[in-house]
């Protein structure tokens, strides 16, 4: 028995295997190793370099068998965590890695919970200098949270992790804002290096963004964490947080997810050629190629703003005011790039939530000059911040400043086009910001010789023909606007709301369409109206109230005087199956286009109904054009198609604009590196290559001259002293006969 103990003490892997098979039989040997570990741990805390290898082996051994003796090893995870957090700077790199790996192993064996593991790993992200260990910790954190939320949301874990991340961001908020302008970039760290550099806050923002991008966290809590990072005194934390809301994440390429790695197309084709041919391999190859093409398209697609995150902001008005306060207070400390980032985020928050931060328009005026760097981005930020609730008095000086700086004969055509386009985008959102005299001057640019300026001026003219033709001269209003004004149509002043809607435009088309479908299905008596309505909702994510048992519950019968011709019913089939008085015939479909539809009072319109209504309106507009409807019908069709594209693109498509909307169509945009290389390659097609053509003529493939051709042009004095000539002179009669015979044989073969 004593020999067995000595053998097992010196062979930990064998003891580990035996303990896993029969824990009770080898408990004495385990306790011996546990006491040995406890004594070495106390020595290790004093001198970490002593017996480090043996200590790592004991830690790995106890981690493997900890689940067999939970009572004896209940303090073991806290030992590892304390060693990592308190003595991290004095530990050897191999020891750190071993302790982290064993903590993760304990979590995989359910010895510790996810919260206990993450409390130990989060502080290590900002303290470790090893890139491999940092990547391992990051991957472990993300995979653990994703696994916990795989089937259902683990709210307890999510709340605990979000509280830790929020604390990591909040810890350095009291520091002074240094900025990133000029010499401030190279400012040295203070004594608290971690807090000054913002490493903890940076990792908190990175992890939150990654969990949001993987759709693990989709509520308002992660948005609040990143929103707090927008006001962090460290510039890189601010920039990363702002990029999250702008949609241009820099951490996408840093993701360790295998799904982000696009497959190699050439390797797929090569594998298909060399491997054994099977029946289903072609389908698998095509599926992989389609997936690679889709990933490439998604990667090259332009970045779109993170619209859901903007909508989930808590108290957006206070958030916008803090952003502007941060921008104006540290104006001289921030670089232009960072100030533009803040402007873009502030403008998108103002546009998405229809907020009013009137001081922003006073601040942005000083950047409205055609020689200002990155002025298109500044104009985009200005246009996005305007909405229909913005006071026109605050925008009129801004519009006048743009017109004075950008629209005059002393600048180029591109500058004039950008100025008019920016004014158009501002006035599209708030038409009352324009003055009559300035509008008349800008509209006159439609006679310019430059295409971009003409398109910009015509766009502004068309805008005011639609929203407020009274500000235009009589000859510039157009036929439709003049007819509308003669009928008394006037735009609503600022602050006034439209009258209550009587009918949904084009709803009669949907009513007629449904009436035709009912007439076709009249013979089917089993068709139930409730089934039709359930089918209409199919495929649309709409929350329904399951508590309501009956649609008619809660309705009160009210006598309507004078409205005898209107019948309100909860079901379409009630009217069809109701007995008709004798002598009454089936009413025909009224084709009067001005009639008011009663479909909205008899049927709950689903999203599918509205999509069908839009298609019916497009079909009606197309028929009107074919029957000679004129330019008015064409404009109506274009508007309907644009609305359909906007609905398919999402809610943020019409809210945010890009620099191309401001710059407009240009003659020739500056080409990037890839476009220049493509142009060079295209110019080389069908052209002879540069260089000497000696020896390359009359050949199938281009090549230089052969050695035989070069030997013909050698000087005679060089040839006389060559080895070949001297060998011929010294050749014997036998050698000469052999060469002559070989020459004759080759000549005979060449003729046959």
Biggest sheet layout: none
**Shape call:** extended
Number of strands: 0
| Helix content percent band | 55-70%
Structural class by SSE content: mainly alpha
How far the N terminus sits from the C terminus, by CA atoms, comes to 95 Å
Mean pLDDT: 81
Low-confidence stretches are 188-195, 250-260, 541-590
Radius of gyration: 39 Å
- Compute the number of helices: 37
Strand content: under 5%
Overview of the structural elements:
The chain is mainly alpha-helical and 752 residues long. The chain is built from 37 helices and no strands. Helix 11 runs antiparallel to helix 12 and helix 14 runs antiparallel to helix 15. Mean pLDDT is 81; it is low at 188-195, 250-260 and 541-590.
At a glance:
The chain has 752 residues and is mostly helical. It has 37 helices and no strands. The protein starts with a helix and ends with a helix.
Topology diagram in text:
Elements: H1 2-10, H2 12-21, H3 27-46, H4 52-65, H5 76-86, H6 93-108, H7 114-127, H8 131-148, H9 155-170, H10 193-197, H11 199-213, H12 220-229, H13 235-246, H14 265-274, H15 281-300, H16 307-311, H17 316-329, H18 336-353, H19 359-364, H20 375-384, H21 392-406, H22 413-429, H23 436-443, H24 451-467, H25 479-486, H26 507-520, H27 529-537, H28 572-577, H29 599-602, H30 607-626, H31 631-649, H32 659-663, H33 673-683, H34 707-712, H35 716-720, H36 723-729, H37 733-751
């Amino acid at each position: 028995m004593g020999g067995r103990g000595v053998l097992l003490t010196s062979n930990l892997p064998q003891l580990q295997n035996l303990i896993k098979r029969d824990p009770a039989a080898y408990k004495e040997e385990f306790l011996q190793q546990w006491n040995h570990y406890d004594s070495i741990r106390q020595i290790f805390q004093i001198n970490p370099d002593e017996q480090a290898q043996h200590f790592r082996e004991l830690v790995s051994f106890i981690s493997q068998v900890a689940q067999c003796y939970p009572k004896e090893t209940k303090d073991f995870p806290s030992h590892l965590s304390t060693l990592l957090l308190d003595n991290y700077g004095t530990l050897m790199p191999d020891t750190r890695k071993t302790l982290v790996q064993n903590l993760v192993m304990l979590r995989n064996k359910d010895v510790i919970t996810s919260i206990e593991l993450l409390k130990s790993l989060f502080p290590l992200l900002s303290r470790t200098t090893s890139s491999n260990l940092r990547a391992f910790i990051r991957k472990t954190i993300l995979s653990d949270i994703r696994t916990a939320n795989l089937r259902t949301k683990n709210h307890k874990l999510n709340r605990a992790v979000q509280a830790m991340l929020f604390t990591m961001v909040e810890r350095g908020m009291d520091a002074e804002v240094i900025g990133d302008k000029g010499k401030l970039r190279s400012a040295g760290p203070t004594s608290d290096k971690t807090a000054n550099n913002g490493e903890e806050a940076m990792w908190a923002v990175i992890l939150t963004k990654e969990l949001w991008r993987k759709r693990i966290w989709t509520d308002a809590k992660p948005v609040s964490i990143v929103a707090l990072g927008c006001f962090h005194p460290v510039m890189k934390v601010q920039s990363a947080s702002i990029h999250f809301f702008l949609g241009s994440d820099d951490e996408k390429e840093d993701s360790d997810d295998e799904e982000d790695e696009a497959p190699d197309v050439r390797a797929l084709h090569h594998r298909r050629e060399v491997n054994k041919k099977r029946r289903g391999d072609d389908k698998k190859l095509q599926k992989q190629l389609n997936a690679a093409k889709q990933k490439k398209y998604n990667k090259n697609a332009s970045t779109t703003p993170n619209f859901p995150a903007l909508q989930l902001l808590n108290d957006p008005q206070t958030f916008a005011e803090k952003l502007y306060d941060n921008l104006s207070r540290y104006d001289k400390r921030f670089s232009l790039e960072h100030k533009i980032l803040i402007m873009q985020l502030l403008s998108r928050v103002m546009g998405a939530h229809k907020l009013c931060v009137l001081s922003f328009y006073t601040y942005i005026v000083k950047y409205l000059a055609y020689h200002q760097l990155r002025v298109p981005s500044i104009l985009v930020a200005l246009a996005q911040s305007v909405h229909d609730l913005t006071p026109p008095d605050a925008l009129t000086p801004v519009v006048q400043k743009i017109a004075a700086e950008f629209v005059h004969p002393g600048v180029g055509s591109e500058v004039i086009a950008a100025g008019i386009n920016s004014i158009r985008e501002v006035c599209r959102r708030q038409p009352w910001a324009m003055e009559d005299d300035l509008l008349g001057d800008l509209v006159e640019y439609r006679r310019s010789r430059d295409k971009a300026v003409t398109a910009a001026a015509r766009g502004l003219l068309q805008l005011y023909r639609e929203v407020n033709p009274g500000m235009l001269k009589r000859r510039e209003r157009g036929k439709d606007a003049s007819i509308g004004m003669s009928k008394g149509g006037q735009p609503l002043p600022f602050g006034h709301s439209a009258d209550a809607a009587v009918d949904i435009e084009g709803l009669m088309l949907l009513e007629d369409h449904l009436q035709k479908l009912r007439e076709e299905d009249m013979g089917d008596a089993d068709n139930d109206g409730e089934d039709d309505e359930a089918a209409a909702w199919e495929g649309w994510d709409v929350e329904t109230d399951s508590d309501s048992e009956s649609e008619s519950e809660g309705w009160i019968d009210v006598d309507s005087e004078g409205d005898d011709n209107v019948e309100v019913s909860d079901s379409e089939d009630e009217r069809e199956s109701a007995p008709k008085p004798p002598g009454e015939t089936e009413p025909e479909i009224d084709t009067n286009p001005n009639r008011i539809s009663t479909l909205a009072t008899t049927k709950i319109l689903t999203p599918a109904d509205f999509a069908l209504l839009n298609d019916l309106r497009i079909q009606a507009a197309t028929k009107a054009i074919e029957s000679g409807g004129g330019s008015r019908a064409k404009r109506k069709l274009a508007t309907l198609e644009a609305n359909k594209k906007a609905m398919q693109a999402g809610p943020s498509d019409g809210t945010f604009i890009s620099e191309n909307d401001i710059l407009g169509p240009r003659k020739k945009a500056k080409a990037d590196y890839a476009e220049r290389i493509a142009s060079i390659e295209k110019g080389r097609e069908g052209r002879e290559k540069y260089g000497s053509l000696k020896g390359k003529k009359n050949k199938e493939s281009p090549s230089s001259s052969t050695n035989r051709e070069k030997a013909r042009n050698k000087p005679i004095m060089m040839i006389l002293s060559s080895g070949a000539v001297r060998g011929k002179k010294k050749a014997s009669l036998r050698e000469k006969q052999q060469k002559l015979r070989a020459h004759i044989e080759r000549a005979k073969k060449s003729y046959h």
